[in-house]
Design goal:
Blueprint (H helix, E strand, L loop, with lengths): L1 H13 L25 H10 L1 E5 L4 H4 L2 E2 L2 E2 L8 H4 L4 H6 L11 H11 L4 E6 L16 H4 L6 H11 L4 E6 L3 H4 L13 H17 L5 E5 L5 H14 L4 E2 L11 E2 L14 E5 L17 H17 L3 E6 L9 H14 L20 E5 L3 E6 L7 E5 L1 E2 L2 E2 L3 E2 L11 E3 L2 E5 L11 E7 L3 E2 L12 E4 L4 E5 L10 E9 L5 E9 L5 E7 L2 E7 L4 E8 L9 E7 L12 E9 L22
Parallel strand pairs: 1-4, 1-10, 4-5, 5-6, 6-7, 8-9, 9-10
Antiparallel strand pairs: 2-3, 11-12, 12-19, 13-18, 14-20, 15-19, 16-19, 17-18, 21-29, 22-23, 23-28, 24-27, 24-29, 25-26, 25-28
The chain binds ligand H79.
């Protein structure tokens, strides 16, 4: 069953078309966001950071993926308690051996800086329920239960404050200590009312004693919508500017989180983050992990960082320190390797916007205020980088970052877009970055669908840009589409629009947006088609009609399209005036004149 759910989830990501309204739990409507929330300026600053350090450190680090002399290969090593499984009393007894004398918060902050990372998130409490901070809720914490007796969250929070490094905490809402080992393989446990109270009490501690918390990385469990809202509110009530992760579930977060080691493949309008581990098999320290090909690991993470940033997200890369608190040398080397690449190329990453291009055959792009950055993953044989859809943009002369010798020709623009020829990039290192300044705006026309010879046009769901809601009812709940967008090469005029759909909810209502103007549409049956007369806006961009389908406004975060849209047809609508036939003129002889 679990693998079926997972397959469905993967398919849903690969094939947004497979998403359908019927996958959402029946009758559940996401709660609107209430109470104080981070300001637009906070969200912008959070988004601008782009690259951060995740640290999985806890009692499990002592075991390093080994129990009873066996390498535990199943599950992540931070979850060894459930996967070995380790008898609860023996797991809890690990606290007496937990003495991370080599944990050096200032050195960790310095390492993050050397990697070019702009924020740090530490596991304050993972699923094992062991608090890496002093809690008054029980004695299962690093101060009360270990010989170390020091508050690691506090030590790292203070080191971050000294270095002006934003600091956040990971907090799992499940707790095997509390739940006495009710393990579920996907950690989608319901949260009891008493445990929710316990969580809120610990969240208050974390939000009260550790200075400014940049984000709370809630994870796992299957809280009710009301519990998710309560957890988010517990954070915001004390620190309204703290960003809450989408894994508080039920669309109550301030940013969306992709699956572990996952990236989105569709457009994102929300702030979002992609969480990554050094090796997909574990986040916590695994002593027997094979760590080879250091340069390959550095390149893999540069590529992931670039992909995520070019899609508009933040990349948070994890290290798993050993039980004595030391950072695994290989992992430190990976971070320093990324930093060596990033330092001279930072302007292409930090503070940039997502790529304006849906796809580039040579690699990726990001957008600065006055500069387009091109990341050349696969240098074309002819050295020509093609930028489809660019129109009416005044480019300056480009250059290659960190390589003063590489020659970049002037940008040429023609009907199919812009091209720029780049000289030999052999000296520019891995993933060369070409920076091309522009004046005013950069104008890119997205892919548009052309009509057939009769002016009739069919827009299939596969051709649409899909916008998805993430972090719904738990880790295995697939993302749901809330917007489809197409561009159609149609001129001014009126069009008969036909929406084909299936799996519609009862009395489903959507809005059909043409050139930014909505028109309501009711989907009358469970499956079928429905027509609407629409007009192009003569003041909109003349080159194409923009069509969007959304839930009926006002819709809020988490609402999904109430049906699976399969296609939309557009046909020119000619107003047939009832022909006023000229009265036949009768000649004198009674015959009609021609
Ligand atoms: O803290 C890390 C994980 O321990 C936590 N999220 C990240 C940041 C997490 N807990 N549960 N899950 C993620 C969801 C379950 C994921 C699974 Fe698996 C991955 C189920 C199957 C593959 C874990 C690994 C269980 C079996 C293998």
């Amino acid at each position: 069953m679990k693998s079926m759910v997972r397959t469905a989830w993967t398919l849903a990501l690969l094939l947004p078309l497979a998403l359908s309204a019927k996958q959402a739990p029946p009758g559940d409507q996401p709660l609107p966001l209430a109470g104080p929330r981070p300001s637009a300026a906070t969200v912008q600053a959070w988004q601008a950071r782009k690259f951060g350090l995740f640290i999985h450190f806890g009692l499990y680090s002592v075991l390093g993926g080994v129990w009873d002399g066996r390498k535990i290969t199943k599950g992540y090593s931070e979850q060894i308690e459930s996967f070995a499984p380790v008898p609860i009393d023996q797991y809890e007894a690990l606290a007496k051996r937990f003495d991370p004398e080599k944990f050096d918060p200032d050195a960790i902050v310095a390492l993050a800086k050397a990697a070019g990372m702009k924020f740090i998130v530490l596991t304050a409490k993972h699923h094992d329920g062991f608090a890496m901070f002093r809690t008054a809720q029980n004695r299962y914490d690093i101060v009360d239960a270990t010989p170390y007796r020091r508050d690691v969250v506090k030590a790292l929070a203070d080191a971050c404050a000294r270095a002006h490094m934003p600091f956040g905490v990971y907090y799992s809402t499940i707790d095997w200590h509390w739940m006495h080992g009710q393990y579920r393989p996907d950690n989608d446990n319901p949260i009891t009312p008493a445990q929710a109270d316990f969580n809120v009490a610990q969240i208050r501690e974390l939000m009260s004693h550790y200075g400014t918390i940049s984000e709370v990385w809630f994870d796992m469990g299957k809280p009710t919508p009301a519990q998710s809202a309560r957890f988010a509110h517990a954070v915001h009530a004390l620190q309204p500017q703290t960003m809450v992760s989408g894994r508080v579930w039920n669309h109550q977060g301030d940013f969306s989180v992709m699956g572990d080691n996952r990236e989105p493949d569709t457009g994102m309008e929300e702030p979002w983050q992609s969480p990554a581990s050094m090796f997909p098999e574990t986040w916590g320290y695994r002593s027997w992990q094979v760590r080879d090909d250091l340069p390959g690991k550095v390149r893999e993470n540069i590529a992931r960082l670039v992909r995520v940033v070019s899609a508009g997200g933040n990349y948070i890369l994890n290290i798993g320190p050993e039980g004595d608190g030391s950072v695994v040398p290989y992992e430190a080397d990976v971070l320093r390797g990324i930093g060596a690449w990033l330092k001279p190329r930072g302007e292409a990453i930090y503070g940039t916007q997502a790529s304006p291009f849906a796809k580039l055959d040579f690699g990726y792009a990001t957008l600065g205020a006055h500069t387009l950055y091109l990341f050349v993953e696969k240098p074309p044989a002819d050295g020509v980088l093609r930028l489809p859809g660019v129109v009416g943009t005044r480019f300056g002369r480009g250059h290659v970052l960190a390589d003063a010798k590489a020659v970049v020709d002037p940008v040429a623009v023609d009907a199919s877009g812009a091209t720029v020829k780049v000289g030999n990039l052999a000296g520019a290192g891995y993933m060369p970055v070409v920076a091309i300044p522009f004046e005013g705006g950069l104008h890119v026309r997205p892919d548009a669908v052309a009509p057939g010879a009769d002016g009739h046009m069919q827009l299939d769901a596969v051709q649409a840009e899909h916008f998805l809601n993430y972090n719904g009812y738990g880790y295995d709940d697939p993302p749901t589409p809330y917007k489809l967008r197409w561009y159609a090469l149609l001129g001014a005029g009126d069009y008969q629009l036909t929406v084909h759909y299936r799996d519609a909810k009862a009395s489903a209502r959507i809005d059909v947006w043409v050139d930014g103007h909505p028109k309501p549409l009711v989907l009358p049956t469970r499956e079928g088609m429905v027509r609407l007369l629409v007009s192009r806006d003569p003041h909109a961009q003349p080159w194409a009609l923009q069509l969007e389908l959304t839930p009926k406004a006002p819709f809020h975060k988490g609402d999904a399209l109430p049906a699976t849209i399969t296609s939309v047809e557009l046909a020119p609508f000619v107003r047939r005036e009832r022909p006023v036939a000229p009265a036949p003129r009768i000649d004198a002889r009674g015959g009609e004149r021609p």
